[in-house]
């Protein structure tokens, strides 16, 4: 291998990672800048984080976002598990293609289309828009991602183990709970965390699905961002980035790197 | 596998997600298809006719006859929509092409790194995908603004005299799309490149190919499925993008996601917004289905 090729590879990697992480790190650094101006370093300060604590609207939006994410990710993981089991184990049942297509379509559908469809349906069903419709909307689109992750896990799980358990006298349910579930447990964690972060991040679908009583954190941030760059937004953004970083670390510890889970999606 | 009857337990397991998908995905999609054929109205919901069970058969039939293609017909006349579609396709296309140029060397470098480092490298490259999209786009505002960091740095280095106007232009939107969607492009490229057998490149080199020839005639052709997958994963969501054109784009940036949003929230023209959504769907998902069919047919053929 020539030295030139090696150097070119190093350069590609340095530039690539610099491009990916530079803007995020600059944003995080700015949140500790005492000056309001982006281009002036006014010294280290945590005052923007302290200012967040007084921002009641931001705090309540964060609470709503976390609650909606936890609830919708739980629903999405359970429904996704049922859907993945049906797709992986039930053979070629009738309308399987429709079910498969409907579960995968939201992965490629522009968010505006899904949001518009859900809002029209909520209005037609006579549902008052608010926290409940927000959770339903998020569960609907994150469930598709959860299904993809869990389907990949179930497919890589040897079906003969389940058959062996049943031969030894386990009921299908026992075989599933005692043999299959433990082996896909890391993917269940991955699916839940994926659904949770997608829900926590979502702006577009939430804007369509929620009502005046339940403004989410991204919606709150978005309305402030439209007014310009502010240190408070930098601070809350950095907190969110740190939160995702911790979640990523935890899921890496849970056994299965999330890169693999994301790889299943691609 | 045999097409068999499902047991009661299996029906229960399948029933829950199936019912959810029918009520909250298929029904809503059918509903916007219907709304796109309705007329805008000053009412709640702001379109008519609204079907209800109390109409009876005759009433429903009478209402059916009032459905129209007006919302679609306006697309032919209204330059706003046509321009939005064309700008969306152009911006998404340019972004995808440029992103491929950025991502390919990066993915190649990771795929040729020492084996034990590879999972860590690709993990790090994909990690930003998990952080907030909104925040990653927002981070670029501070960089691109006239009084932002990039202009500040360039002026301090005396490379430019006056600030470059990047923010609130289509260029900023392209940068934002490349940045936000890069992980989607990297993953399939990396997967395709990492799978390649090094013996093929060695064989080509042994037979007298220069490193450049090895790349153009072995590495690149073998990675084409990854290139196609990456481009599709990026291009499709980029066309319907709302956040990036809204935050980084200017008044010239007419993208369909944003036009649809405005029609819906500001103009309250639900039939037009629904028709735009349906057209977007046909435009994006149609080619995907055709590509998928072609792939399945190619796989079905004995090789």
Keyword list:
heterodimer; A: 266 residues; mainly alpha; MetI-like fold; 12 helices; 78% helix; B: 303 residues; two-stranded antiparallel sheet; 2 strands; 1% strand; globular
Give an account of the 3D structure:
The complex is a heterodimer of chains A (266) and B (303). Chain A is an all-alpha fold. Chain A has a single domain (55-265), classed as Orthogonal Bundle (MetI-like fold). In chain A, 78% of the residues lie in helices and 0% in strands. Chain A has 12 helices and no strands. Chain A is globular. The two termini of chain A are 31 Å apart. The model of chain A is unreliable at 257-263 (pLDDT under 50). In chain B, 72% of the residues lie in helices and 1% in strands. In chain B, β1 and β2 form a beta hairpin. In chain B, α1 crosses α14 (270-300), α4 (79-111) packs parallel to α8 and α13 packs antiparallel against α14. Chain B is globular. The two termini of chain B are 23 Å apart. At the A-B interface, α1, α3, α4, α5 and α6 of A face α1, α4, α5, α6 and α8 of B.
What is the topology?
The complex is a heterodimer of chains A (266) and B (303).
Chain A: H1 3-30, H2 47-54, H3 56-89, H4 96-108, H5 111-124, H6 131-155, H7 159-167, H8 172-201, H9 204-209, H10 217-225, H11 231-253, H12 258-265
Chain B: H1 8-35, E1 39-40, E2 47-48, H2 56-64, H3 70-77, H4 79-111, H5 118-126, H6 133-144, H7 149-156, H8 170-195, H9 198-206, H10 211-222, H11 224-239, H12 243-248, H13 256-265, H14 270-300
